[in-house]
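Worked example 3 (structure in, sequence out).
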């Protein structure tokens, strides 16, 4: 709800757009509507609701990481940053994550990079947690930024009900590792 989003914003969390009615597959919408109409159909209604609620949102996360350069250009006219799961022309995200160069950005380039590939914290098993912790070690050693996201945080359990979510115990492990490495943990808006 908008009230929950306001509370999250007041607590310092980054909020961004993700699409208004993404029931259809985003690649299908992009190809059938084109970039300008996709923004009008998916982003503009969300942007208007946020404006009316007094929320400031400066980023967009592509659903299913479906994106085109045309959509990037259209969105970047009004938004500061975009999040996807992978960037075209760069190596695909591979396992283990620490070996996936496209998952990392040089810390020097982070402030000027406007389309960021992020890795989903998925809770399929503790292997994912271990992979992320190893990736945090790489980012620290090479002075890189590693962008992570999850769809939701589930309070209990070893494995989340939805594989795109993370459990609180898993998130605590990851954040504890980042803190032990002396990493800065920031929201998407602060990158």
């Amino acid at each position: 709800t908008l009230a929950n989003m306001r509370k999250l914003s007041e607590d310092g969390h980054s909020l961004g757009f993700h699409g208004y009615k993404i029931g259809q597959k985003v690649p299908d919408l992009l190809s059938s509507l084109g970039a300008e109409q996709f923004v009008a159909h998916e982003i503009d209604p969300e942007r208007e609701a946020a404006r009316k609620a007094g929320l400031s949102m400066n980023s967009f996360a592509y659903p299913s990481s479906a994106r085109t350069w045309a959509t990037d250009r259209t969105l970047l006219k009004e938004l500061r940053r975009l999040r996807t799961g992978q960037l075209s022309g760069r190596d695909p995200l591979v396992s283990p994550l620490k070996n996936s160069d496209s998952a990392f950005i040089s810390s020097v380039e982070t402030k000027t990079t406007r389309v960021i590939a992020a890795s989903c914290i998925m809770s399929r098993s503790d292997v994912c947690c271990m992979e992320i912790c190893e990736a945090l070690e790489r980012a620290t050693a090479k002075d890189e930024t590693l962008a992570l996201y999850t769809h939701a945080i589930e309070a209990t359990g070893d494995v989340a009900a939805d594989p795109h979510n993370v459990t609180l115990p898993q998130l605590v492990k990851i954040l504890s590792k980042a803190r032990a490495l002396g990493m800065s943990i920031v929201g998407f808006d602060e990158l």
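Notes: The two ends are 26 Å apart (CA to CA). Helices lie at 2-10, 26-52, 69-76, 107-110, 126-142, 168-180.
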